[in-house]
Amino acid sequence: MAAGVFLFVAVNAACLAVSGNLVSGERSFSIDYKNNCFLKDEKPFQYISGSIHYSRIPRYYWKDRLVKMYMTGLNAIQVYVPWNFHEAVQGVHNFTGDRDLEHFLDLANQTGLLVILRPGPYICAEWEMGGLPAWLLQKPNIILRSADTDYVQAVSNWLAVLLPKMKPWLYINGGNIITVQVENEYGSYYACDYNYMRHLRTLFRFFLGEDTVLFTTDGNTDREMTCGTLEGLYATVDFGTANNITEAFKRQRRFEPRGPLVNSEFYTGWLDHWGDPHAVVDAQKVSRVLGEMLTMGANVNMYMFEGGTNFGYWNGADHDTRFRSVVTSYDYDAPLSEAGDPTEKLLAIRDVIKQFRDIPSGPMPPATPKFAYGFVTLKKVGNISGLLNTLSPLGPVKSQYPLTFEELKQYYGYMLYRTTLPRDLSEPTPLISPLNGVHDRAYVSVNGVYQGLLERDTTLVTNVTGQQGDIIDILVENMGRVNFGSKINDYKGLLSNLILGKDVLTDWKIYPLDIDGAIAAGWPHSDSQKSFPAPQKEPSFGPVFYMGTLEPNGLAWDTFLKLNEWTKGQVWINGMNLGRYWPARGPQQTLYVPGPLLRKNQPNRITVLELEGAPAHLRVLFMDRPQLNATAEKS
Ligand SMILES: *[C@@H]1O[C@H](CO)[C@@H](O)[C@H](O)[C@H]1NC(C)=O
Ligand SMILES: *[C@@H]1O[C@H](CO)[C@@H](O)[C@H](O)[C@H]1NC(C)=O
Ligand SMILES: *[C@@H]1O[C@H](CO)[C@@H](O)[C@H](O)[C@H]1NC(C)=O
Ligand SMILES: *[C@@H]1O[C@H](CO)[C@@H](O)[C@H](O)[C@H]1NC(C)=O
Ligand SMILES: *[C@@H]1O[C@H](CO)[C@@H](O)[C@H](O)[C@H]1NC(C)=O
Ligand SMILES: *[C@@H]1O[C@H](CO)[C@@H](O)[C@H](O)[C@H]1NC(C)=O
Asked: What is the active site of this protein (predicted)?
């Protein structure tokens, strides 16, 4: 054991010797600077916590996951609040159903778990735009995460809604929230704007009172700690198994000479990007390092304890050297799997925790049952170019030059850009995105016949043939906004002109597409009286919708959907958007299908939007286990 470690143990022993002056029945939570620990009801308190994101788990399963965390021996959970999940349209707030944050807090409280709340407003979390609503981008050149007037106004309006709801849930007010984080790893952001952080501090204090423990979390470098910390907000660090613990906590000590040691994000695993190798973190290393930190008396939050799923369009993206979108699964190689099942890693962690506190007696709840429903053969509904009446009920917006998703106020999913070929192109002619303005992927068809694709940072040219006056359709996919770093002003759609041969394409009709709205209203299954195209004999290419039904068998168990030999697209079951699939790029091969969305006694409606090319067999497979790692085959 290193000398430094020994010193911390000694410091902590002092902390545990404190005797409380508790006025009976009074609830308090505070920092004991003298003895370097938290005090809960005037008694020394050490948290062993795990991150869980309610926005990545169907409401039906919240309790199941929380009970499993409790049974592992955790005494707290750490929770992000994604602003864009609750305020998708500016000024319209949703806190119901899967967005019912207070119900989630209530379940945690009933389970016996304290809460470390992380309300942002920016959260990163590998979540679309780091939780910021894309409507902020309507102001061109807005400086997000700074004292920019419009940004600060929007933040103030949001926190004036969120924080008063949270106030009764503070531990000191009878709830379970012990500490509240301000912003998130702010020191990693280029702006380093103390006026912004001071403004947030004022708002948090105003809405939550003077007695709430507010904190910041930053990466383990001096620069990050310098820009991310502020007086009055307790400074904590985050780091994983690769770091030297002694060094990492020494850095926290430089910024916070006294008070509890806190690792706010101890990485139990890691995320995956499409096209990158599958990430895992060794269970033995995780449990060993956890044990070392707990021995030092440190407070630890494991990020993630239960990762869940990026359903719908909620995945984020990174942009370091190039744009890399986060996969649909947020399994994270966490102690509870994406489907909420206890893993070997969880059992190893529980064995460590046992050495530090009494863990609840009784068995760990088992994995939820899984079922292999088998193959379903889909049929073609039609190509997207032929379905615009259904998918774009309000029709197109006309514009000489392309407009972004944000300008048309459609923030997520897909939009279609249509114009005509300015001249005959009998030879393959390059369609070019000279300024790399396709965000993020564009599927190009002429008169409904697929020609090829453009992709941000990687494919800036594709060939097109056709005749003057032919319709050229460019379906643009938003693959999730950048959630980290300096490129979070991530506008989507066609951000600059496309050039075809020598001509700048102009005079666009831009169709916002409400695919989710059409599917929620029952399409395409409700149209099934109409005759669909005959079953296909050959693969078809380009953006095409398919549908099928999974016949009921009396079960509504979790399952995993594999689209073997399909290329890339989006899947809905019974109206729920399960997210993106991209087996051609990997590593993820199956999509998690939560059992409660299946109907036991009625046909289950499957809708697939395949963007590039479906296999001739048109089969999809429901399996009883996930497949998150296949060798990444580049498409
Ligand atoms: C609010 O969110 C819930 C859960 O996702 C959803 O069912 C509901 O339709 C939303 N409400 C509104 C008014 O959009
Ligand atoms: C939290 O649970 C405790 C019992 O464990 C209860 O006394 C308290 O009222 C609950 N708080 C809230 C806000 O529901
Ligand atoms: C961590 O760093 C300290 C110096 O601060 C050093 O003494 C110790 O050996 C390092 N531990 C490991 C495991 O590398
Ligand atoms: C696309 O759909 C339209 C309308 O149904 C149809 O006329 C066209 O032939 C289709 N294109 C292809 C390539 O199948
Ligand atoms: C486009 O077509 C030209 C001429 O046939 C060919 O040389 C070139 O490789 C093609 N480019 C792409 C990106 O397919
Ligand atoms: C993923 O699969 C590849 C080969 O299929 C293998 O080489 C690699 O070790 C696997 N990665 C993990 C993290 O299991």
From this structure: 185, 265
